[in-house]
């Protein structure tokens, strides 16, 4: 590598990434091998530059980023049940506990214990599953509220994900007033990033307050997940989003990445927002596709203001269990090359990683470490971040 690498600008980096980065963790690990210094080895990429329009601003409220409370308990369960390739519905985690023990569960046996109580009697359902599940006290969940303002002043509200634990998710919804917003039809749609337990299994809590809400899920949900939507009491429109870009309203689009994910899950849906005069904001649940793939997809697919990647929010899936591997250092360095003006990371980014971002001088928006979030190094539960305001 040459000594002038620090002078490489953001656009050159993105162009190089778009030419050579593969999807997911492999591409992320090889960021330097597929960097702009090797662009001469790759054919020029033709950008699609899809016009998704522009919006004035977005504000994101972190309802909950705490998907689980103890890493050791979660990893111990996964290991004890057979590892990361085991079907998540077999772990015997809540709400699908049937009393059979770790790694011996099933969706059918678990849901049969509580189906008759959903969605209105979630307290009773959770009381039952607590007695039958493995580590019910460790379940938390991920969910955020996105408030978008159009150029003409029209405002919209959306949910991204809906937690895991019925008890925790309901507490968080009430804390942030999400329950009332749902009851008053203020929230137009629920976007599910992916089928994982901590983003999706709290579904009845949303339906308790608005069973008719429109849902957008990535195409590729397994039969259990699709059945759970029905069993949870959904009475609204269900949209299965195919891989690729789907425009929503001016300045907003979703994108489904067709990727396999641990615990037998497939596909992740993320959101892009084009802020007038500012640039593109990328919002993600877990970013299993990797931050590299997330950014280079934006570069290849979308036309955005000033060709500028303005900001990012969500879990970046770098050190979710607070471990650290030297290969992650490449990701820390690569984040700086994008030129983000605001970074609101949390959840599966890991606190260790967030602190490394801060040490590198990146524009990390810190949190308040309230409501069981563990550190101010990233945006915690109840914290907000705004773009374009």
Task: Give your account of this protein's structure.
The protein has helices at 10-20, 24-29, 71-81, 107-112, 122-132, 166-176, 178-183, 197-200, 203-209, 223-231, 291-301, 328-337, 351-359; strands spanning 50-51, 57-64, 143-149, 155-160, 189-191, 214-218, 238-241, 244-247, 252-261, 265-275, 279-284, 302-303, 309-315, 342-346, 384-387. The protein is of the alpha/beta class and 389 residues long. Helix 1 packs across helix 11. It is globular and about 55 Å long. The relative contact order is 0.15. Mean pLDDT is 91; it is low at 1-8 and 19-39.
Q: What is the alpha-carbon Rg in Å?
A: 20 Å
What structural category do the secondary elements indicate? Answer: alpha/beta
- Sequence of strands across the biggest β-sheet: 7-6-5-4-3-2-15
Proportion of β residues? 15-25%
Q: If you consult CATH, what is the topology of the largest domain?
A: Metallo-beta-lactamase, Chain A
Task: Output the CATH homologous superfamily of the largest domain.
Answer: Ribonuclease Z/Hydroxyacylglutathione hydrolase-like
What sort of overall outline do the alpha carbons produce when their principal axes are compared? globular
CATH class of the largest domain: Alpha Beta
Give me the number of helical elements.
Answer: 13
Largest sheet: 7 strands, mixed
What pattern of helices and strands is seen along the backbone? HHEEHHHEEHHEHHEHEEEEEHEEHEHE
CATH architecture of the largest domain: 4-Layer Sandwich
Distance between the termini: 40 Å
What is the share of helical residues? 25-40%
The chain-level mean pLDDT equals 91
Q: How many domains?
A: 2
């Amino acid at each position: 590598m040459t000594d002038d690498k620090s002078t490489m600008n953001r656009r050159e980096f993105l162009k190089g990434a778009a030419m050579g980065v593969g999807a997911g963790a492999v591409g992320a690990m090889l960021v330097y091998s597929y960097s702009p210094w090797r662009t001469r080895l790759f054919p020029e990429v033709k950008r699609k530059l899809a016009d998704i329009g522009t919006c004035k601003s977005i504000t994101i409220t972190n309802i909950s980023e705490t998907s689980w409370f103890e890493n050791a308990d979660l990893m111990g369960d996964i290991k004890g049940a057979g590892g990361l390739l085991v079907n998540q519905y077999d772990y015997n985690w809540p709400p699908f506990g049937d009393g059979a023990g770790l790694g011996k569960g099933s969706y059918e046996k678990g849901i049969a214990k509580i189906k008759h109580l959903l969605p209105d009697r979630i307290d009773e359902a959770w009381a039952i599953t607590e007695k039958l599940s493995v580590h019910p006290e460790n379940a938390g969940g991920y969910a955020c509220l996105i408030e978008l303002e159009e150029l003409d002043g029209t405002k919209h509200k959306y949910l991204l994900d809906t937690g895991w634990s019925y008890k925790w998710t309901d507490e968080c919804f009430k804390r942030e007033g999400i329950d009332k917003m749902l009851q008053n039809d203020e929230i137009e749609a629920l976007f599910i990033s992916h089928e994982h337990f901590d983003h999706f299994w709290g579904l009845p809590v949303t339906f308790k307050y608005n069973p008719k809400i429109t849902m957008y899920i990535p195409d590729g949900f397994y039969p259990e997940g699709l059945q759970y939507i029905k069993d949870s009491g959904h009475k609204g429109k269900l949209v299965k989003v195919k891989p690729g870009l789907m425009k929503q309203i001016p300045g907003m689009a979703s994108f489904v990445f067709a990727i396999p994910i641990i615990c037998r899950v497939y596909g992740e849906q993320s959101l892009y927002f084009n802020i007038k005069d500012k640039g593109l904001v990328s919002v993600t649940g877990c970013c299993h596709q990797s931050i590299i793939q997330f950014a280079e997809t934006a570069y290849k697919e979308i036309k955005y203001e000033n060709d500028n990647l303005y900001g990012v929010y969500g879990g970046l899936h770098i050190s979710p269990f607070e471990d650290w591997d030297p290969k992650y250092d490449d990701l820390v360095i690569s984040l700086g090359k994008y030129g983000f003006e605001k970074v609101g990371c949390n959840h599966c980014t890991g606190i260790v990683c967030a602190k490394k971002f801060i040490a590198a001088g990146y524009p990390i928006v810190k949190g308040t470490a309230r409501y069981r979030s563990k550190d101010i190094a990233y945006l915690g539960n109840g914290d907000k971040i705004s773009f374009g305001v």
